[in-house]
User: Which sequence fits this backbone?
């Protein structure tokens, strides 16, 4: 018998997919961990589960209690699924700039959703800080605190990294990933470096995020912006502290878009924006390393969460972008 014991038992153990068009183009094996196949639809299900289980183990979360979190959406969706399955409530503070699809999903699942103005981290009304204050003021509530809570990267250290290692028989030359909280990047990088210190670990960064300059010069510079959601940072989070970083690659919106449309048209994969940054960086690295290398990255979530943005010509035009101008290879 092989029966999953409810929703939480179905998180993780995702397939590792050879991205055929980009692998054939570069002569490298470019492999994407299919995190969009998690039951809540994103890589953040793993962190959400570990954070809730950790709070339960510590006796901080009791039946009927509330999980409060500031999130770009995916962590909130993962948390709400798990809260529903375990008898908790969920209060989600989300910047109002995030996609309507993610807001709608959160409300449908039954989270209490509070959209707030998107202000920088240093502002006391930043969504992350606000979620911490609200949790502290409530009875029988915990703050998931995904940016600083190390249960987040532990999920990837104990599950995502080992799964990749097993799925490739340890034949990995490089690991590349964008960071939001950094939990995915750091947990996998720490695990892989322990297994084989020769594996190169690189941060993929969108424009406007400070980790590229941090990796290159030790200083955080955040000029610019990106059409992607859920990734990029202006600080080193608790989850990123101590993570090995060999180098970083910066990917433009145009390149990100080219990648997700090629994945859609040539590989049959309908992906969100952070995947464009991840796979774009993997392709750039493949070209730099030369043929014959294996590079792993993350397919974080599905394009359906961004239908009204990345896959809407009018929205793209409002950002000065168009699919026609992307020089996509013609599909066979
Ligand atoms: N991609 C998407 C779409 C996300 O929502 C997130 C998390 N906000 C990430 C990537 C980054 O994951 P992590 O928080 O583990 O760095």
Assistant:
């Amino acid at each position: 018998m092989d029966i999953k014991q409810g929703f939480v038992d179905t998180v993780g153990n995702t397939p590792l997919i050879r991205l055929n068009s980009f692998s054939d183009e570069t002569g490298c094996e470019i492999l994407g961990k299919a995190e969009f196949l998690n039951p809540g639809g994103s890589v953040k299900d793993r962190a959400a589960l570990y954070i809730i289980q950790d709070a339960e183990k510590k006796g901080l979360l009791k039946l009927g209690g509330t999980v409060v979190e500031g999130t770009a959406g995916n962590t909130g969706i993962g948390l709400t699924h798990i809260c529903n399955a375990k008898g908790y409530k969920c209060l989600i503070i989300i910047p109002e700039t995030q996609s309507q699809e993610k807001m709608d999903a959160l409300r449908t699942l039954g989270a209490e959703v509070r959209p707030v103005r998107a202000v920088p981290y240093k502002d006391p009304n930043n969504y992350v800080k606000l979620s911490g204050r609200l949790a502290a003021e409530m009875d029988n509530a915990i703050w998931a605190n995904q940016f600083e809570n190390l249960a987040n990267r532990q999920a990837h250290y104990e599950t995502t990294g080992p799964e990749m290692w097993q799925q490739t028989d340890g034949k990995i030359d490089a690991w590349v990933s964008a960071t939001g909280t950094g939990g995915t990047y750091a947990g996998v990088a720490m695990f892989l470096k322990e297994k084989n210190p020769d594996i190169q670990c690189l941060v993929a960064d969108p424009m406007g995020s400070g980790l590229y300059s941090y990796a290159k010069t030790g200083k955080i510079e955040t000029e610019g912006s990106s059409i992607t959601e859920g990734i990029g940072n202006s600080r080193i989070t608790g989850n990123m502290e101590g993570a090995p970083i060999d180098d970083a690659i910066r990917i433009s919106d145009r390149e990100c878009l080219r990648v997700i449309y090629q994945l859609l048209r040539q590989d049959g994969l309908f992906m969100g924006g952070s995947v464009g940054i991840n796979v774009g960086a993997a392709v750039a690295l493949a070209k730099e390393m030369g043929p014959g290398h294996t590079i792993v990255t993350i397919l974080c979530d599905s394009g359906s969460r961004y239908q009204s943005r990345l896959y809407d010509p009018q929205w793209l035009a409002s950002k000065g972008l168009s699919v026609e101008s992307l020089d996509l290879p013609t599909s066979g």
Remarks:
- The longest strand covers residues 89-95.
- The radius of gyration is 19 Å.
- Strands lie at 16-18, 29-33, 66-70, 89-95, 112-116, 141-143, 174-178, 200-206, 247-251, 294-298.
- The longest helix spans residues 151-167.
